[in-house]
Specification:
Glucose Oxidase, domain 1; nucleotide-binding; 46% helix; TIM Barrel; D-amino Acid Aminotransferase, Chain A, domain 1; alpha/beta; binds adenosine-5'-diphosphate; 17% strand
Length: 899
């Protein structure tokens, strides 16, 4: 098979279907070329070659692919009318990495490759543009040295060694912009850069173009295993063996003068999802200048420019003079660009993120990809594309990454508090959201505070990990397409970029605005939707589920076969979950209610009692409190089913273990300290999670089950009488392992219910079922199903007991297990289909053998994890249950599983 796939001249060997082989960038370059978009000619070395390189080493691989590479370069030469390695008429190349998924800024790019002292002369002869040539040369040395030769700043407080030289020269020359450098300045830079390389590497900068090319290709391969790529892969779970492709392509130059430019654009707003073409550009610039924030980039559209001017409080005259849009400066080229972006969005049927360069009045497209976006933009764009007819319902649903919905469920600033807050500075609304935290200036210190805001002059790919940890990101430089902005939107992290008024000093760790100074650790708040940076902590409130988000939820429910319920222990959580669309409660843990101050006393009194009579007295105190809780929950659930689990944890969790609190307990209950201590000792177990808990409690102390059953039934009857709500309690017996265990509990519940109905002279419907969380229960599921109305898989305990991993101690080795690949996922996070999943499947099947209509659900943490939800669907469950904030995620995941 081919090692090299060519593209350019409106044709290509590959296309977008070859993403795995050509990487995202290469596949899309080929695709664009095929559909007639002007792309500089070039070729892609496949990801397979990257893998071969890892296995076989540099020499073998270069020897093997060299003939194909030479032949492909000849084709570029023919198209471009220049020759690679020629002194008089040199062809310059860009060498770009590209993995199968876009990893923005993760891998490295080298531009202007092929330049050396001779080629510089030839190119000046050919173009008559001395400035452009020296500018390209100094850029080349700078990039090549960073990427291929590995020259990095020595301390984190330092600038990149080349930036240092640039800053120094700017200061000496009293200029601020790269474009103000004279030819002589640029020549000086080249000289100084080469000196740095000589000093730091002990060797001269490589001058042979072919050496340069292979050096760059190998560097791209190596970057696949660099720190940044490793971290990004780990974060997203991408496997190592994917490898990266290398794209080698003819250079086109945005730095040839006032008729040249470079830029980045989006077919829609990546922050909000609005259907508005937008982007940024720079005249007489190259490559990453726009993204790196070397100069403040300009807006592509007139509308964008005006919006920007409004935020920056710049007058219309000033705007037109200093910050004009591409639409106004190069209207013809803008029109052409506008058409390409429409064409590309229609072709890919998704929001595109594109890069372009204008060389002396000719427009070239350098990249397109499905744009990274915030959770809000993801939802809006999918629903808009559906409305516009570009997607059908199922495709639109599949465009949603359920986990990213989490972003939409985060708190937003309270408008009242926002009005009162003091605005420190104004930046660009780079990634919407609300964040509050303490200032840190270095990415590797983001974890210094529990909530931190990373404040940087600009960010670089090295900062990724810290950006992920921080609550929000602020940069003084860079626009809406800067590294910080793009990465933040991808993470759904709040970001304000380009807040030019901030004077950041890394050495003193301070931030100055006007004459006010802020230190590391000071609290600030940032509003990613307006670009405001605010002093101190600004209050937040719960978000609402409306607009496109609500539409998405409706669409999900249309396809999902499972219901989504919530785990909720109190009316507040139940109400939140209802507002997110939960259709019932899958798990109410009754013990959580016992931890409140006055209740714990009664609970302890019950535990301490040595006689049934004593226990009953204490339980009678608890009864009205529990009843009240249930009434609140039934009311909040408005008639949807509510599964209530009987007391589950070992009793010793309710007694105090510190001397001081034991003393309080003794006083409260009017007994001796010794008696308390003795009881605590009596209750202590070596392995409490496998000890006296669950239905083992209910079977040794039946009066507990009796009280709880009474509280549930009475609450339902009361709510019916007082509010007219027909509740549907499902009473759940935990930790069942034998049939008889369940039967005894069932009998108590039934008797209590009947007795209560008689007293109330009324009835309500209710069911009695069991948790499936002990492996033995799943084996005997057919027998249990004869007596149980429903099963609810408690996959937390089931995972714990199937693996034999203690949930509370597994942290110590799980990390190592994941790193060594012994486990693919944390089984407490992602349901283990292979093992635990078999028990779930078998339990469900056996249960339904005896009772075909048996209701089956899941109430473990897994109920809100998309891949586990998909498994529950496969098994044929009736519902999943998860925490309130996971309900929308589970609804979409359930729909995706069904289509
Ligand atoms: P990344 O994946 O980090 O975006 P790219 O490979 O897209 O890296 O390269 C970064 C930048 O270099 C591009 O945005 C583009 O401006 C510039 N560039 C890449 N290839 C060329 C080329 N053939 N001609 C001119 N500029 C290029
Ligand atoms: Mg890059
Ligand atoms: Mg790019």
């Amino acid at each position: 098979s081919l090692s090299v796939y060519k593209f350019g001249n409106k044709k290509a060997d590959g296309g977008k279907e070859l993403k795995n082989l050509l990487g995202g960038k290469g596949a899309n370059l080929a695709e664009m070329s095929r559909i007639g978009i002007p792309v500089p000619p070039g070729f892609t070395i496949t990801t397979e070659v990257c893998t071969q390189y890892t296995q076989e080493g540099q020499k073998t691989v270069i020897e093997r692919i060299e003939p194909e590479v030479r032949q492909a370069i000849e084709e570029i030469e023919a198209t471009m009318g220049a020759v690679f390695g020629d002194d008089e008429n040199p062809l310059l190349l860009s060498v770009r990495s590209g993995a199968r998924v876009s990893m923005p800024g993760m891998m490295d790019t080298v531009l202007n490759l092929g330049l050396n002292e001779e080629a510089v002369k030839g190119l000046i002869q050919k173009t008559g543009n001395e400035r452009f040539v020296w500018d390209s040369y100094r850029r080349f040395i700078q990039m090549y040295s960073g990427v291929v030769l590995g020259l990095k700043p020595e301390n984190k407080e330092d600038l990149d060694p080349f930036e240092e030289i640039i800053e120094h020269l700017k200061e000496k020359r009293n200029i601020t912009l790269d474009t103000d450098f004279t030819v002589q300045d640029l020549k000086d830079l080249v000289f100084d850069f080469k000196e740095v390389v000589r000093k730091r590497t002990g060797k001269a900068f490589p001058s042979d173009p072919w050496d340069q090319l292979w050096g760059a290709v190998i560097a791209v391969f190596n970057s696949w295993n660099g720190d940044r790529a490793l971290y990004y892969r780990k974060m997203h779970g991408y496997p190592e063996d994917w490898g990266t492709a290398v794209n080698v392509q003819a250079m086109v130059f945005g730095n040839m003068g006032q008729d040249s430019a470079t830029g980045v654009c989006f077919t829609r707003d990546a922050g909000t999802g609005e259907n508005k073409f937008n982007g940024e550009y720079l005249i007489n610039a190259q490559g990453e200048d726009v993204v790196a924030g070397v100069r403040t980039p300009l807006q592509i559209t007139k509308l964008g420019s005006q919006r920007w001017a409004e935020l920056a409080q710049v007058s219309e005259e000033e705007r037109l003079e200093q910050f004009p849009s591409l639409e106004e400066v190069m209207p013809e080229l803008y029109k052409e660009l506008f058409e390409y972006q429409r064409a590309l969005e229609n072709h890919y049927r998704d929001m595109q993120d594109m890069e372009f360069t204008i060389q002396q009045g000719k427009l070239w497209i350098l990249q397109t990809r499905n744009g990274k976006r915030t959770g809000a933009a993801m939802v809006k764009i999918a629903m808009d594309l559906l409305r516009e007819g570009l997607l059908d319902e199922k495709t639109a649903l599949n465009r949603i990454d359920p986990i990213k919905l989490d972003e939409l469920l985060h708190p937003v600033f309270d408008p009242q508090a926002l009005k009162k807050a003091h605005v420190i500075a104004q930046g660009l609304p780079a990634s919407p959201g609300a964040a509050t935290g303490q200032i840190v200036f270095f990415a590797d210190e983001a974890a210094k505070f529990k909530n931190s805001i990373l404040v940087r002059i600009e960010t670089s790919p090295e900062d990724l990990e810290g950006m992920n940890i921080a609550r929000g990101i602020v940069t003084a430089r860079g626009g809406m397409t800067s590294h910080a902005a793009v990465v933040a939107r991808g993470m759904g992290k709040c970001c304000v970029s380009g807040a030019g008024a901030l004077k950041i000093n890394y050495k003193t760790r301070t931030l100055k605005v006007g004459d006010h100074e802020y230190q590391e650790g000071d609290w600030i708040s940032i509003n990613g939707s307006t670009g405001n940076i605010l002093e101190g902590k600004v209050a937040t409130r719960e978000p609402e589920l409306s607009g496109e988000f609500a539409e998405l939820m409706e669409l999900s429910d249309k396809f999902a076969l499972m219901d989504v319920r919530t785990n909720a222990d109190n009316p507040r959580d139940a109400r939140i979950a209802r507002s997110f669309g939960a259709r019932g409660i899958g798990l109410t843990r009754t013990e959580h209610m016992f931890f409140e101050v006055d209740r714990i006393k009664a609970m302890r009194e019950m535990i301490l009692a040595d006689t049934v009579k004593g226990r009953k007295t204490a339980l009678n105190k608890l009864l009205p409190m529990q009843r009240e809780d249930f009434e609140g929950i039934f009311e909040a659930m408005e008639g949807f089913p509510v599964t209530i689990r009987l007391l589950d944890p070992p009793l010793h969790e309710f007694v105090p273990h510190e001397l001081a609190t034991q003393r309080d307990m003794a006083e409260d209950l009017h007994i001796s300290l010794e008696a308390v201590k003795a009881k605590v000792a009596e209750l202590s177990e070596f392995n409490p999670m496998m000890g006296h808990r669950g239905c083992r409690l209910g079977n040794t102390y039946p009066e507990i089950t009796e009280m709880q059953a009474r509280a549930i039934i009475e609450a339902a009857l009361n709510v019916k009488k007082e509010k007219g709500i027909e509740s549907m309690p499902e009473i759940m017996v935990p930790l069942v392992g034998t049939v008889k265990e369940f039967l005894l509990q069932k009998e108590i519940i039934q008797n209590t219910a009947e007795e209560t109905f008689k007293r109330y002279k009324d009835r309500i419907p209710y069911t009695i079922g069991t948790m499936m969380e002990i492996p033995r229960a799943t084996l005997l599921a057919d027998q249990i199903a004869e007596h149980a109305d429903f099963f609810s898989f408690g996959t937390n305990d089931l995972t714990q007991m199937t693996f034999g991993y203690s949930r509370d101690d597994a942290g110590k080795f799980l990390q190592v297990y994941l790193e060594k690949g012994i486990l693919k996922h944390d089984p407490f996070e992602v349901l283990d289909r292979e093992g635990v999943g078999q028990l779930v499947r078998m339990g469900t099947e056996r249960g339904r053998q005896n009772k075909p209509k048996l209701k089956v659900g899941i109430c473990g943490e897994h109920g809100g994890e998309p891949s586990s939800v998909a498994f529950c669907h496969e098994v044929g469950m009736n519902y999943v249950s998860c925490s309130p904030y996971r309900v929308p995620i589970a609804r979409v995941a359930a729909a995706q599983a069904a289509i």
